[in-house]
Amino acid sequence: MSSLFATSGARRAWLLAGALVGCLAGAAEILHGLRVPVRLLDGVAARVNGREIDSSRVERTVAGSDASVRATGAAAGNRVLARMIDEELLLQQALDSGVAQTDPEVRAALVRAAINRVNAETAALPVTRGDIEAYFAAHRAAYATAARYEITPLYFEAMQFPDLRTARQRAEAARAGLRAGQPVELLARAADTLPFVPPGELATANTLANYFGSNVVKSIDKVRIGDSTPLINFGRGVLVVYVSRRRDSEIPALDGIESLVQADLLREQQETALARLLDSLHKAAHIDVAPPYRVAAAQ
Using a CB cutoff of 8 Å and minimum separation of 24, what contacts does 82-89 make? Predict the structure, then answer.
């Protein structure tokens, strides 16, 4: 008899438990369909699955919209917020689906966003005049102006190229005339015309290299003021370059290039901040590298 009562009691307990579960499930279903108003903090326009959308973002977007959109007043903000909510939902869905791990474009965009955030945070830090002066003192050589040359090229073209004998004789005669004190302008009239218009006064070495090539520039750099280079085979003839003036490189005053120095300082600070972030991330992460790649990963 006691066994029968025990079995009956257990059966009633199961029935009660089942009824309770059913009630809870029904209540949960009802509550799921309800939208219970949630009080948001000031400055928060919406919260999407725990992610907040700032009111300032909405206001900035509205302010940057066309005048016709801004003229709609509060409706403009509502439309902008609705679009931001859609974007947030799509972003969350994309992240949940693993697209950030598999899509190269998404990964590249996230990396750029991370770098841009570091750069923006670094750019927001104050930079004093003392910081700029210290950076300029440590990098003065980088701001030196390039040496400049004023030259007169004397070109003598071969009559029967590649036979350069006649051209070399004319070039040697021109050099002798320069040593004898003849005006370079007079000797230039007897030379042949180059296939291009040479640079004007005080050209940098880079500019001269673009016209004549690096070997010619090396010869010019070795020449004293008022002298000429040795004979140089050039094009379809021979070239002699007379150097009339040279302005050596010099370092400008900070006041004249302060904005440039400040920009370079900011770039170095941003690179340093990114390097520190990556270093901390590497130290905090557990990274396994296959043996063939370990040397490259360590560099």
Answer: 84/45, 84/46, 84/53, 84/57, 84/58, 85/46, 85/48, 85/53, 88/48, 88/49, 88/51, 88/53, 89/48, 89/49
